[in-house]
Amino acid sequence: MISNNHNYVHGYSPVEGFRLADQARTLASLLHHGIRFEKGARVLEAGCGIGAQTILLAGNSPGARITSMDISKESLREAQKRVIRAGFTNVVFQEGDITHTSFERGSFDHIFLCFVLEHLVHPLATLAHLTSLLVPGGTITVIEGDHGSTVFYPHSDAARETIRVLIDMQAEKGGNALIGRELYPLLSQAGLADLSVEPLIVYVDATRPDLVDGFIEKTFTAMVAGVEGEAVSSGRISQERWDEGLKGLRRTKEKDGTFCYTFFRAFGSVPLQ
Ligand SMILES: C[S@@+](CC[C@H](N)C(=O)[O-])C[C@H]1O[C@@H](n2cnc3c(N)ncnc32)[C@H](O)[C@@H]1O
Q1: Is residue 4 part of a domain?
Q2: Is the pLDDT of residue 5 over 80?
Q3: Do the domain assignments include residue 160?
Q4: Looking at the predicted structure, is the pLDDT value of residue 4 above 80?
Q5: Tens digit of pLDDT for each residue in 61-85?
Q6: Domain membership flag for residue 1
Q7: Please, are residues 144 and 180 in contact by the beta-carbon 8 Å criterion?
Q8: Domain contains 8
Q9: 226 HSE (CA, 13 A, CB side)
Q10: Which residue puts its alpha carbon closest to atom 2 of ligand 1?
Q11: In the chain, which ranges are E strands?
């Protein structure tokens, strides 16, 4: 029976669902610019979660036929509600494990993954499997973060420690919070051609109050805060140090603070025979 991915460091709480929605809204123009699929194209969204990216894909490519897959039944239920609420009719949902689907070879023209490879134990094998589902000339788009790219002012050792704890927890579950920098070799080893990787930088200071709230607070700090229970109860860090770290992250939201993070967006296509 398929169930939630228990290696998934962020978990499936309603709070995490809100965070994914805030994150997608805040980063929509940065991450989705230029992603448009042609009328009639068969698109697989692998690891759709609660549908935060799905509604952006469906809205930007109204003529595409999107299949959105996730291993979590609860997330899919939420995603379906979101898509219906937004009024889109070009998405179907499928519960399944994207590491070994039962789709036939050549079932899709395009595949889209966002913030998913970082949680997989075998990202390369999954990319190779997903690539086999594409027609020759089909494309794959992968978006991932890289927590090692985080820089901020003022400096806080405690804040850096909380980020390090999250990176370590994810690694212990077989994931990789530093995977953004590896997208080029991963796509290349999966046999994709015409590769291009773009670093997409989010830079925040007081001149961007929307990002101070939407990115520093509701995306990044909320993501770190979300693992507090396990981080502290496992003894990786004391409660006091953790609190100090979150305070340090939030300190960057003040008038003189700055915050910078890099996402990586990679495109590749299946070579024509
Ligand atoms: C960080 S969320 C990202 C969701 C969505 N792409 C977004 O950006 O909002 C990662 C999602 O990948 C899903 N996932 C993890 N491993 C999976 C697997 N093996 N098969 C299918 N979905 C998986 C999780 O259930 C979760 O919903």
Answers
A1: no
A2: no
A3: yes
A4: no
A5: 999 999 999 999 999 999 999 999 9
A6: no
A7: yes
A8: no
A9: 21
A10: 49
A11: 42-46, 65-70, 91-95, 108-114, 134-144, 151-153, 193-204, 258-269
List the CATH number of the domain containing 123: 3.40.50.150
* pLDDT tens string 17-49: 888 888 899 999 999 999 999 999 999 999 999
pLDDT of residue 47: 98
For residues 114 and 106, the answer to whether their CB atoms sit within 8 Å is no
Quote the pLDDT of residue 1.
Answer: 34
Separation of CA 258 from chain center: 23
Q: Give the number of other CB atoms < 10 A from CB of residue 44.
A: 25
Residue 127 CA: distances (Å) to CA of 17, 18, 21, 170, 195? 25, 28, 25, 19, 14
Alpha-carbon gap, residue 148 to 177, rounded angstroms: 8
Q: Is the CB of 114 under 6 A from ligand 1?
A: yes
Q: Which atom of ligand 1 has the smallest separation from the CA of 49? A: 27
Q: Which atom belonging to ligand 1 lies closest to the Cα atom of 98? A: 20
250 CB neighbour count, 10 Å cutoff: 16
For the cut 60, the answer to whether the pLDDT of residue 108 exceeds it is yes
Number of domains in the chain: 1
Answer whether 144's CB lies under 8 Å from 173's CB. Answer: no
Assess whether the previous peptide bond of 123 is cis (omega < 30° from 0): no
For the cut 90, the answer to whether the pLDDT of residue 11 exceeds it is no
d(CA 191, CA 272): 12
| Structural domain harbouring 79 | 14-269
Which of the listed residues 53, 119, 130 should we mutate to test ligand 1's pocket, taking the one with most ligand atoms within 8 A of CB? Answer: 119
